[in-house]
Amino acid sequence: MNTIEIVLVAAFALVGVGLYGLLATRNLIKVVIALQIMIKGALLALVMAGRATDQVALGQSLALTVIVADTVVAVIGLAFAVQVKRMRGTLDLHALSELRG
Amino acid sequence: MLAAGLGIAAVVCAVLAIRASRLLSAALWLAAVSALVSILLYELGARQVAVIELSVGAGLVTVLFVFAISVAGDDGLREGEALPRWLTVGAVGALLVLLVGMALPLGEVDVNAGGFSIEAMLWDQRALDVLVQIVLIFTGVLCLLGLLAESRLPAQPPTQALTENVERPDALPVEPEPAEPEHEPALEEMPL
Lengths: 101, 192
Description:
The structure holds 2 protein chains of 2 kinds. Chain A is built from 4 helices and no strands. By secondary structure, chain A is an all-alpha fold. Chain A has a single domain, classed as Orthogonal Bundle (Helix Hairpins). In chain A, about 85% of the residues lie in helices and about 0% in strands. Chain B is mainly α. Chain B has a domain of about 80 residues: Four Helix Bundle (Hemerythrin (Met), subunit A) (Up-down Bundle). Chain B has 7 helices and no strands. The longest helix of chain B has 26 residues. Chain B starts with a helix and ends in a 25-residue tail after the last helix. The model of chain B has no long low-confidence stretch (mean pLDDT about 75). Chains A and B meet through helix 1, helix 2 and helix 3 of A and helix 1, helix 2, helix 3, helix 4 and helix 5 of B.
């Protein structure tokens, strides 16, 4: 197993851990944290793909876009969590559901 | 070998971030994941992205998390699981099997291969990406301002304020009347 494969496995593991957190937790801020971990894995895999196909600059430019989108997602998610906490008094995702059936 | 160690450390920090019982601890473990990933990116040749990831991912986003946790409160995670554990573990296992099955083995790869610079790639071939990034940043700022904005006149409904502005277009220099505290709406009725 060479270096790139090892790093790729680490990227997949990060995506898996993030997905587990996304599915398992009910806290809104924890969901944003899990999403961040997933995106870190995707970022690593993007740079690795660029390196593996001998297009490092392309991988880096795509990773840059992912970083910007990731930050915007974190900012909006955290602002949303703060507003939900102010209005509902809880960060529990199940408490936010108004649908009954 | 260094890359493998950094990768394992990043995964361990990610697991600790997910399993942390306090939100502040989870945010700090996430910052550690960002720092380790940025070191890994630097070791693999993506130096510009590594520096940006370290400053934005481990710096700015962590500050945002700490700010949000201090405002929203670190009220613990006393809730149960959102989904049944077998379903969660099964979904993650299926995803990992799919990813590893599709991507590995990679075959012969030149680890030390180089390309032309990221600046030339960004400005010459990926100019649309730069435009999208600028639009994303402005969208994020506008959404943040809209979400965190607090109502200045909570006792005055928006339709009434609009009517007064139409009737009195020269009413801007006039000081607004103080809001009556007994007519404050409940928290559920406050607009975003």
